[in-house]
Write a structure and sequence with these properties.
The chain has a 7-stranded mixed β-sheet. Helix content is about 55%, strand content about 15%. It is globular and about 65 Å long. It has 2 domains: about 130 residues, Up-down Bundle (Butyryl-CoA Dehydrogenase, subunit A, domain 3); about 120 residues, Nuclear Transport Factor 2, Chain: A. It starts with a helix and ends in an 8-residue tail after the last helix. It has 11 helices and 7 strands. It has about 300 residues and is α+β, with helices and mostly antiparallel strands. β6 and β7 form a beta hairpin.
Length: about 300
């Protein structure tokens, strides 16, 4: 029992980092926790007496688990319709919650996670493990069943796609807040021109409402169409919208009666909103840790 307790203590030392790996791999907080738990089960059943770097060993185990989960998920996603928004990490407006800091290191915004969703499972694993966690290509190759050179190519291909598609937000959080505040004020006031002034002409809105109601999950492109959706949001939920940080960036949580019904993440670049990601799936919202927003 003493040896198992010692092993459990060692695992806890790495849990935060492992959860960060799994969140980047899966874009789902619940699935990330499942992957970390599976890593513990595998550790508890393994002989690790010859393991010199337990953190590295656990990282590769989590990588394998996440790769299997991504492959199983991929066919289901291909059959689904509409938009999918990764799980947002919500913090109070005045700062990122300490428990979320490791998850959001390296500016893991919703925009980046959306692009990672477009990669193949092997590409995503190679990019996340190498570019974000410095795992060597020989270890990555062993996970995906390819040579180190092939693993390097996977990461390079993924890097090009991420660089070309993931918008880099403005670093000034205060300015982000101003732009999102102007967006919300214009939507509440029904000021179409003011809305257009803060929206990039090619802005993309992704709304993920889950399976019900059918057709509610969709992707909308272009400032005029997104402005119309902003008006619809303001009419229904504008009075209940409050500022928050969503994956470390300016965002909004709408919570009538204190019950969150939507989380909006914004990507602001060049002082314009270029992306809006909305999670309105009741089931997934119930799983998010939004208690940090309680007064």
């Amino acid at each position: 029992m003493a040896e198992r307790d010692w092993l459990a203590d060692r695992f806890e030392e790495h849990r935060t980092n492992l959860r960060a790996v799994a969140y980047r791999m899966l874009g789902s907080l619940a699935e990330a926790d499942d992957a970390v738990q599976e890593a513990w089960l595998r550790l508890s059943r393994s002989d690790t007496s010859g393991v010199e770097n337990l953190g590295g060993w656990l990282t590769t185990v989590v990588g394998r688990v996440c790769l299997d989960m991504l492959r199983a998920r991929r066919s289901r996603r291909e059959e689904s319709l509409g938009a999918h928004v990764p799980d947002p990490i919500v913090s109070p407006e005045d700062g990122i919650h300490p428990e979320h800091e490791a998850l959001l290191a390296d500016s893991v915004g919703l925009g980046l996670l959306v692009v990672l969703e477009t990669l193949s499972p092997a590409e995503r694993l190679a990019f996340v493990l190498h570019d974000m966690f410095d795992v060597p290509f020989d270890e990555i190759g062993a996970i995906v069943g390819r040579s180190p050179a092939a693993a390097r190519q996977l990461a390079s291909r993924a890097r090009r796609r991420v660089k070309g598609a993931a918008p880099i937000p403005d670093a000034d959080l205060g300015r982000q807040r101003e732009v999102v505040g102007a967006f919300l004020a214009a939507a509440r006031g029904g000021d179409f021109d003011a809305l257009l002034s803060v929206l990039d002409p090619d802005v993309v809105l992704r709304a993920d409402a889950g399976a019900v109601p059918a057709g509610a999950s969709r992707v909308i492109r272009g400032a005029p169409a997104v402005a119309e959706q902003a008006f619809a949001f303001a009419q229904r939920l504008g009075p209940f919208a409050r500022p928050a940080l969503v994956n470390g960036a300016a965002g909004i949580v709408a919570a009538p009666g204190g019950r969150p019904v939507s989380v909006l993440g914004f990507t602001v670049r060049g002082e314009k909103i270029v992306e809006i990601d909305i999670l309105a799936d009741p089931g997934r919202l119930r799983q998010l840790d939004l208690a940090v927003l309680d007064d």
